[in-house]
Amino acid sequence: MIEIVENPNKTKTVKELGAVDISSIQEDILNLSQECWDKYDRLKPNCFGVFSHTTQHIVFKFVTDYRETFPDIVEYAIWEEWKHKLEPIMRAIVEPYGYLENTIGKVMLAKLSAGCKIGTHQDNVVESVYPLKIHVPIETNPHVKIFVGDRTYHFKVGQAYEMNNMAMHSAANDGDSTRIHLIFTYYDRQLNVAKNRDPDLITNHLRSQLERGEGLFDASSD
Predict the structure, then answer these.
(1) pTM for the model
(2) Of 46, 108, 144, 170, which is most buried, counting CB atoms within 10 Å of its CB?
């Protein structure tokens, strides 16, 4: 069995990326109706068990195939409405990375209901190996916690964070108000290619792990 090649540019747990100005989008997001959340949550492609009855999503962009290292990105119709609002903020957050290809992948809003949890899991699929996963809190409360590895974090509104999605992670909202995050992935293929290795071999190995279900959360569980 070959060694799984990890992205050396990923943080091991959580990396604070600094202050971010969300004033241009915060009110618009907080004013989204429950009917809107319900509509787009029913259409989301990430219908995993860890989110069942706890977390709603509005997905703007998503991957076409978890099994591909760099799959195509599909843009949902709602992206046209929000692109001009979200892209400048996301670009400002990732500019310090200095990536050449500078690609933003998946983009979504995630709302964790009050008193609810997201179970412990890894995003351990082929597609998740290379991209960095960025969280931008839009609304939170002091009783929201993020668990990554053996550490506990509280993500603050007005800050951006990179989180290692390949590490075991979970979340808990023990407060009495919702938690909403803007979440997106970011990568540069030129910097994230495994050197001196066969990319196809690595992809096939990771795909075989996926097919065996190794290290994956149970998408059918509640």
Answers:
(1) 0.85
(2) 144
In the numeric block, which tokens belong to residue 91? 């670009």
Site of tokens 């597609």: 127
Distance CA 144, CA 55 (A): 13
Alpha-carbon span 104 to 198, nearest angstrom:
25
User: Residue 6: pLDDT above 80?
Assistant: no
Phi, psi (5° rounding) for residue 218? -85, 110
Joined together, the tokens standing for residue 173 give 């909202």
The pLDDT of 184-208, averaged and rounded, is 61
CA angle 36, 39, 45 (to 5 degrees): 120
Question: CA-CA distance, 119 to 132, in Å (whole number)?
Answer: 21
CB 161, CB 181: distance < 8 Å: no
Distance, in Å, from the CA atom of 188 to the CA atom of 43, rounded to the nearest integer, reads 29
| Residues 164, 110: Cα–Cα separation, whole Å | 17
Specify the DSSP class assigned to residue 79: H
